[in-house]
Amino acid sequence: MDAMIPVEVGEPSFRRTHFHEESNDGAIQDELDVLDERMTRRFNSKLKPRNFQEGDLVWRATGSARRNPTEGKLAANWDGPFRV
User: Fold this and answer.
1) What segment(s) does the record annotate as region Disordered (predicted)?
2) Is the predicted pLDDT of residue 70 greater than 90, yes or no?
3) How high is the pLDDT of residue 9?
4) Domain range annotation of the chain
5) Is the pLDDT of residue 7 over 70?
6) pTM to 2 decimals?
């Protein structure tokens, strides 16, 4: 008798026989929730709290929508100063 892999014999593998789709979907959803919370915590840990008073001068980041396309990559990254 020759050794055969389960696919050739037609027997399902251990993974297929013990797979439960409902519990797998629940586990995936739980992992996504934990991942989202972890990402939020990591992002918030890097933030510096900034308190501005009325009359302070601030710089505003220039997004790609506000940049002059003719200036290319050497365009200013900040606009300002602006008074709060």
Assistant:
1) 63-84
2) no
3) 66
4) 6-83
5) no
6) 0.45
Label each residue of the chain as H, E or C: CCCCCHHHHCCCCHHHHCCCHHHHHHHHHHHHHHHHHHHHHHHHHHCCCCCCCCCCEEEEECCCCCCCHHHHHHCCCEEEEEEC
Ranked by mean pLDDT, which of 20-24, 31-35, 70-74 comes out on top?
A: 31-35
The answer to whether 68 touches 81, Cβ cutoff 8 Å, is no
Q: How far apart are CA 57 and CA 54, in angstroms?
A: 9
* CA dihedral of residues 30, 33, 37, 40 (deg, nearest 10): 150
Token output for 15:
């993974």
Mean pLDDT, all residues of the chain:
85
**The token pair that represents 80 in the structure block:** 């300002």
Could you give the C-alpha distances from 50 to 44, 69, 81, in angstroms and in order?
13, 31, 16
CB atoms under 10 Å from CB of 79, counted, come to 13
